[in-house]
Write a structure and sequence with these properties.
Length: about 325
């Protein structure tokens, strides 16, 4: 999730655990710090763009390592504020702020390596977009109420914010399941034998869902709103670059993206350059993670460091389409 959301979640949890045992501002501050710490790995350069992508949300998001770090951070905070008697309470508060960061990240589609160092498998439920105001706003409102109101009512507001945001996560998983059932039925009705199906929310909401179905040679993109009058889905078909995969699929950069994306990727060639694209984030034809691999010879020799070539959609056209399509209006995807 985005940094603001992680700060809000860490603060809300720390305030809930610490209550009035310490100043609310201290709990909110250190909860925000703990909620931010795992994402500092974004500043580490692993050598090339693909490694930077696939090594983000790795060791710094490990439940094991964060559990080890929690008592050290709690010891420092309790000593700094001369609250040694509250060490165990700070330990619990900061542990929750630390481990809920990767757990929340795992609800997005990106891929979070929760079980490092035992496995580098990237977990991603994909039921919530990386930025969703309906999840974040209750946390912010609850924390601000706890800071402003000097009685138990502020803590109740904070608890309510945590409950509402958690219920929203549950709603997102249920909505994803509903969209998945509709997508599977549509694929079957249209005779599309898909080997993989990705169902993720469109930006900023959980009403409109982006669907990607893959076969060995093609991928199909469609959209389904929970408010659609008809369950019929309009699929657009695109080439995955099967011939290129056969020739270059074992090259380390391609294999790394294939594994990290759980197979939702494509290979393409333009102007003599090869490109590997993660199909999970973005929309056709604009994808967040599109990497230039160099020429086929450079890829084979591993003499070219992959570079990120993000493709941004036209927001002027996409946002109005997103708003109208979210409410169930039957519209073709934006060009």
């Amino acid at each position: 999730m985005d940094s603001l959301t992680q700060i809000a979640l860490g603060s809300a949890l720390s305030v809930a655990v610490m209550g009035r045992r310490t100043a609310v501002w201290k709990a909110a501050l250190w909860g925000a710090v703990a909620g931010t710490l795992p994402d500092l790995d974004a500043f580490i350069d692993h050598g090339n763009a693909i490694l930077n992508m696939t090594r983000h949300r790795a060791e710094s998001h490990s439940l094991f390592y964060l559990t080890l770090a929690a008592p050290l951070l709690a010891w420092g905070v309790s000593r700094l504020h001369r609250e040694a008697a509250l060490f165990k309470r700070w330990w619990l508060a900061l542990w929750l702020a630390l481990i809920t960061h990767p757990l929340l990240d795992a609800m997005t589609v990106y891929g979070t390596q929760l079980l490092q160092p035992f496995t580098d498998y990237p977990y991603g439920v994909g039921s919530i977009f990386i930025i969703d105001p309906l999840y974040t706003v209750p946390l912010i409102v609850g924390t601000l109420a706890a800071l402003r109101l000097k009685n138990s009512r502020g803590l109740r507001w904070n608890a309510a914010g945590l409950v509402l945001s958690t219920l929203y996560l549950g709603w997102s998983a249920g909505a994803q399941l509903q969209a998945t059932q509709v997508a599977r039925a549509s694929l079957q009705a249209q005779g599309i034998d898909a080997s993989g199906l990705l169902v993720t929310p469109a930006p900023f909401n959980t009403l409109l869902w982006r669907l990607v179905a893959t076969t060995p040679t093609q991928y199909f993109e469609g959209y389904h709103s929970l408010l659609d009058k008809s369950p019929a889905i309009r699929w657009t078909v695109h080439d995955r670059g099967a011939a290129l995969m056969a020739r270059h699929g074992q090259a380390p950069p391609v294999a790394r993206i294939a594994a990290f994306s759980h197979g939702f990727y494509k290979l393409s060639e333009s102007g003599g350059q090869l490109f590997v694209t993660d199909l999970r984030m973005g929309l056709e034809p604009a994808y967040t993670f599109n990497f230039d691999l160099g020429t086929p010879a450079e890829l084979a020799a591993q003499s070219h460091a992959p570079t990120l070539q993000s493709q941004r959609p036209d927001l002027g056209a996409t946002l109005p389409w997103l708003w109208r399509r979210m409410w169930g209006e039957a519209l073709p995807p934006p060009a």
